[in-house]
Amino acid sequence: MSERKLPFTALAKASFNICSVAAVTRRWDFENRNNYLAEGRHENILSYTLHGAKNIYTPDSYEPFISFAEPGAVFIGEGARYLSETVYKEGEEMGQTICVRFRLTDEYGGIIKPTGTPLHFPDDKSGTLLHRFEQLFDCYIRANSSPAELKCLCYSLLCELFRRTEAATRANEFRNILPAITALEENPAADMPVSKLAKMCWLSESHFRVRFKQYSGGLSPADYRNKLRIDKAEELLASSLWTTDLIAETLGFYDTSHFYKIYKKFKGTTPKANFIR
Q1: 277 CB neighbour count, 10 Å cutoff
Q2: Do strands 17-29 and 72-76 pair parallel, antiparallel, or not at all (unpaired)?
Q3: DSSP string, 153-207
């Protein structure tokens, strides 16, 4: 069976399948340890700490590289080498977690192994993450649940974690242009001029352009919008349900000729014409 390593940062945009889902809720004695330093994990793990605190160490660290108290969650990838310990908390005798174990595969059945720093979610004051973990666990132990329902809940949980990761990155680095980024990504078909985008962020046009290119990897707002359109167009073309004329109209291009021109600019070739059958 083939294996492919994929950074957590790329996994959020990748196409993958979830299999072998299992869940458990456990109570742990404080100072309980799970040691995967030698061989690494044999599957992915999502862990939500309801009670207690947790430290996670890498093979090379004497200090924990992740340390958090409840409520909080962590996503550790298959193959990761680490040691986790439940930490003593005054006034409590036990720690408690909900754990979800699963594997990720590509469309050919090959294993996908997430790499990089595990995703850590130390803040769940709203209880949204806990609700999703509890839904999945309840589904897993029900006698009448289906594998499809269980996988849907696991996909939903992962999507929520990826959304939070992206939102946190944006909030930390590009908070001042977040309104414009959100406007472009939620409605790429709209032709919003730079002046309007800059005004949303209370910035001058020149300052906004500089910050936006830092976010987009050098793309102007117009090119970034067109890239979003072309990426979506690729999905629509692959479905074989959409014609190029319909795609051009729906995604805000002037006409089909304009769509072809922009597509070639980003992809280096013209789109394959797909027709509704």
Answers
A1: 5
A2: unpaired
A3: HHHHHHHHHHHHHHHHHHHHH-GGGHHHHHHHHH-TTS---HHHHHHHTT--HHH
Please give the average pLDDT of every successive group of 10 residues along the chain, which has 277 residues: 86 91 85 84 91 82 74 90 80 79 92 89 82 94 92 94 82 83 89 92 93 91 94 87 91 93 90 54
Structure token digits, residue 133 = 């973990």
Q: Interhelix angle for 147-173 vs 178-186, to 10°?
A: 140
In this structure, are strands 3-7 and 111-115 parallel, antiparallel, or unpaired? parallel
Q: Within 10 Å of residue 181's Cβ, how many Cβ atoms? A: 19
Nearest to 20 by CA among 3, 41, 43: 43
Q: Is the peptide bond before 71 cis (omega within 30 degrees of 0)?
A: yes
Question: In 233-250, which positions are buried (b, 16+ CB within 10 angstroms) versus exposed (e)?
Answer: beebbeeeebebeebbee
Phi-psi region of 252 (alpha: psi -120 to 50; beta: other; left: phi over 0): left
Dihedrals phi, psi of 44, to nearest 5 degrees: -80, 155
Cross-strand partners of 29:
94
Total-model pTM: 0.69
Quick one: tokens of 136? 């999945």
